[in-house]
């Protein structure tokens, strides 16, 4: 089957750095994406890794290791507004995308 | 950037009635759109793939006669929840990617979602 595993919750303080991990099992691999979703809102695209290594986009970075079927999202200089759910997602054949269960990030002052 | 508009954002309907949700790509054409369902504090579950000019492809366990999908143009897909019941209450979200450009396996653009409550 196809699945993506990520922690259900993470708590961190404002200004800190937090890492959200994602391990995946897919038939065919086309890259790993990360999305942010605030309560009641739609997911918004954050980052994508098609190849191994680190992708940096401002305060957010994402890493992929295809040999380990593993990736992570790194959030730096945490702000209160970063409190949200974060989903790793993997495109599959036919352009469908499957999502992990999501990690709720709580940022405390 | 690519924008997907979804309407309505919220709808309350009586049990047994039908509800139509629209998903429009505003500044790009999309041969394929996707419909997801999300229950509170859960992940997005793909319901079906909407294909312009042909039948939708439904995921296992999704009733095609209950969730009717029409993709009549390159910019519009509709999801109709027929004979809605309280258990159909959920957050429905569509997504799409441009036919051209470097979209590929990168991020898809999501509509703003529709909160359906069946009473």
Helix content of chain A: under 10%
Distance between the termini of chain A: 40 Å
Measured by DSSP, the beta-strand proportion of chain A falls in over 45%
Strand percent estimate of chain B: over 45%
Order of helices and strands of chain B: EEEEEEEEEEE
Radius of gyration of chain A: 13 Å
Average pLDDT over all residues of chain B: 90
Determine the most extensive contact between two protein chains.
Answer: A-B, 25 and 24 residues
Number of strands of chain B: 11
Name the helix and strand elements of chain A from N-terminus to C-terminus, one letter apiece.
EEEEEEEEEEE
Oligomeric composition of the shown chains: heterodimer
- Report how far apart the termini of chain B are: 37 Å
The tally of helices of chain A reads 0
**Helix count, DSSP H or I runs of 4 or more residues of chain B:** 0
**What gross morphology of chain B would you assign?**
globular
Helix percentage range of chain B = under 10%
Structure characterization notes:
The complex is a heterodimer of chains A (109) and B (119). Chain A is an all-beta fold and 109 residues long. Helix content of chain A is 0%, strand content 57%. Chain A contains no helices and eleven strands. Chain A has strands spanning 3-5, 9-13, 18-25, 32-37, 44-49, 53-57, 60-65, 70-75, 84-91, 97-99, 103-108. In chain A, strand 4 (32-37) and strand 5 form a beta hairpin. Chain B is mainly beta. Chain B has strands at 4-7, 10-13, 19-25, 32-38, 44-51, 57-58, 67-73, 76-81, 90-96, 109-110, 114-118. In chain B, the strands form two sheets. In chain B, strands 2, 4, 5, 6, 9, 10 and 11 form a seven-stranded mixed beta sheet that branches. In chain B, strands 1-3-8-7 form a four-stranded antiparallel beta sheet, with no helix packed on it. The model of chain B has no long low-confidence stretch (mean pLDDT 90). The interface between A and B is medium-sized, with 25 and 24 residues.
């Amino acid at each position: 089957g196809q699945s993506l595993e990520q922690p259900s919750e993470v708590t961190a303080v404002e200004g800190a750095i937090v890492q959200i991990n994602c391990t995946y099992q897919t038939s065919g691999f086309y890259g790993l994406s990360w999305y942010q979703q605030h309560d009641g809102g739609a997911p918004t695209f954050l980052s994508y890794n098609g190849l191994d290594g680190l992708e940096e986009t401002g305060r957010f970075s994402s890493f992929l290791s295809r040999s380990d079927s593993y990736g992570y999202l790194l959030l730096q200089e945490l702000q209160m507004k970063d409190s949200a759910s974060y989903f790793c997602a993997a495109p599959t054949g036919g352009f469908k995308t499957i999502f992990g269960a999501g990690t709720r990030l709580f940022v405390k002052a | 950037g690519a924008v997907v508009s979804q309407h309505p954002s919220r709808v309350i309907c009586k049990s047994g009635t039908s509800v139509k949700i629209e998903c429009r790509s505003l500044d790009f054409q999309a041969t394929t759109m996707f419909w997801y369902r999300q229950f509170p504090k859960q992940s997005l579950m793909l319901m079906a793939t909407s294909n312009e000019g042909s039948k939708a492809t439904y995921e296992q366990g999704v009733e095609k006669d209950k969730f009717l999908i029409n993709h009549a143009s390159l910019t519009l897909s509709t999801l109709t929840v027929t004979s809605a019941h309280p258990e159909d209450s959920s957050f429905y979200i569509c997504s799409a990617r441009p036919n051209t450009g470097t979209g590929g396996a990168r991020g898809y653009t999501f509509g703003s979602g529709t909160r359906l409550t069946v009473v």
